[in-house]
Amino acid sequence: AERLDKDYVWHPFTQMRDWLAEPQLVIVAGEGVRLIDADGNMYYDGVSSLWLNVHGHRKEAIDRAIIDQLGRIAHTTMLGLISQPAAELAAELAAIAPPGLAKVFYSDSGSTAVEIAVKMAYQYWQLKGVATKRRFVTLANAYHGDTIGSVSVGGIDLFHRIFAPLLFPTVQAPSPSCRHCRLAGDPKRCGMACLAAMEDILARDHGEIAAVVMEPLVQGAAGMLTHPPGYLKGVRELTKRYGVLLIVDEVATGFGRTGRMFACEHEGVSPDIMTVAKGITAGYLPLAATLTTTEVFEAFLGSHTEQKTFFHGHSYTGNPLACAAALANLRVFREEKVLAGLPAKIAAAREQLDALRLLAHVGDVRQCGLMIGIELVQDRAGGVPYPAEAAMGARVCRHARRYGLIIRPLGDVVILMPPLASTAAEIGEMTAIVRRAIDEVTG
Ligand code: PMP
């Protein structure tokens, strides 16, 4: 596999040799929260196979559900047809989603779910006869995927720069990241300048704005940048006041990642459109969904010739195998009371992370449920970052791999996203490996 990989495979972000140690690791199996390579070595899956895996690998209940579905049908189009698992899953998603989200549009990745949300919001206003509402408010530091539409609503310069001529312009609001706000940490001083900036934009431009697009509570791909409590709720209130749709991207945060089924629940928020993917099949098969309200859906009911339809649909939409996996995923959540078990795991992680905070080269530790970012700095007192060419985050991840933990860097932020199925003891072991790797690389 290693030779074939070298000769033929183009990896996401092109090989990433700077942080993936040579030789290439070939994963042949998974077992619970661990991955097994071709030489039989075991590694903790510390990023849940890119923030996807929820209940561990080879979860019997999910394996069985997929095999059972295979015995019936693997795939059929959803163009005018429906499969039993796709119909059942839509009903279950509507039942567990924040109130009001009653219609489910399937796709196959987080990026396409966002792409769909954007097209949906745009066309909604066109169908309502408000042709001027065609722009989007986005947040600096946001990440929503890699298609042209989802990059357009993103805010990470590195992903934007090269494609800038292809992207549609947005109105960018400041990132609500407390890390980059000098007023953070003191609720009295905070006063949420980020929310005031959002209000200024909406008060000024609402006649042109179709929707605000945001990740709830935390900007994951930007390095787990957590937001001040109340920001999400505040944006919901503002969007309602100014007649703008709210699109919340729960692709990373959905399915228990933040301690609740959806991050919106922490602030009692119901968006107009919500995107989910990643954990929806517990990391088994590609599937995504864009959920919306009956109000938005009904605007699209009518004849095709009048353009009253949503011009979007993928070949693998609502794939029955993936939907069967998702149904099994939700069954495991219910039967094993996964959400009820999370507070103890999140608290265990917090306790371990508090010790990391004291290290000389750890500038910040951010945690939102089981989404964890550990930021490395040259000098904690002065907050001085390492030079980019030192690739400290990448080096820590390489060292961690030697000790049996797969994690990833986002710049100099080391990302730990253990599967929800990890025990408190396993999370402790993962954190201990991170600490050892940081000590070695920075010592
Ligand atoms: N939105 C968010 C918030 C994400 O974190 C990601 C992926 N990291 C995406 C969208 C894109 O999802 P996908 O990789 O499945 O296209």
UniProtKB/TrEMBL annotation:
User: Where would you find the membrane-spanning parts of this chain?
Assistant: none
Record InterPro entries: Aminotrans_3, Aminotrans_3_PPA_site, BioA, PyrdxlP-dep_Trfase, PyrdxlP-dep_Trfase_major, PyrdxlP-dep_Trfase_small
- N6-(pyridoxal phosphate)lysine occurs at 278
> What EC numbers are recorded for this enzyme?
2.6.1.62
Q: Where does substrate bind?
A: 143, 278, 313, 408
Q: Where does pyridoxal 5'-phosphate bind?
A: 110-111, 249, 314-315
Q: Which Pfam families does the UniProt record give?
A: Aminotran_3
Q: Which GO terms describe its molecular function?
A: adenosylmethionine-8-amino-7-oxononanoate transaminase activity
Keywords per UniProt: Aminotransferase, Biotin biosynthesis, Cytoplasm, Pyridoxal phosphate, S-adenosyl-L-methionine, Transferase
Site residues by UniProt (Participates in the substrate recognition with KAPA and in a stacking interaction with the adenine ring of SAM): 13
* PROSITE patterns in UniProt: AA_TRANSFER_CLASS_3 (PS00600)
The Swiss-Prot or TrEMBL record lists the needed cofactor(s) as: pyridoxal 5'-phosphate
Main EC class the enzyme belongs to: transferase
- By its UniProt entry, which NCBIfam families does this protein fall under? bioA (TIGR00508)
What the record says about family reads: Belongs to the class-III pyridoxal-phosphate-dependent aminotransferase family. BioA subfamily.
What interactions and quaternary structure are annotated?
Homodimer.
Listed name of the protein: Adenosylmethionine-8-amino-7-oxononanoate aminotransferase
Q: Which organism is it from?
A: Anaeroselena agilis
Q: Which gene encodes it?
A: bioA
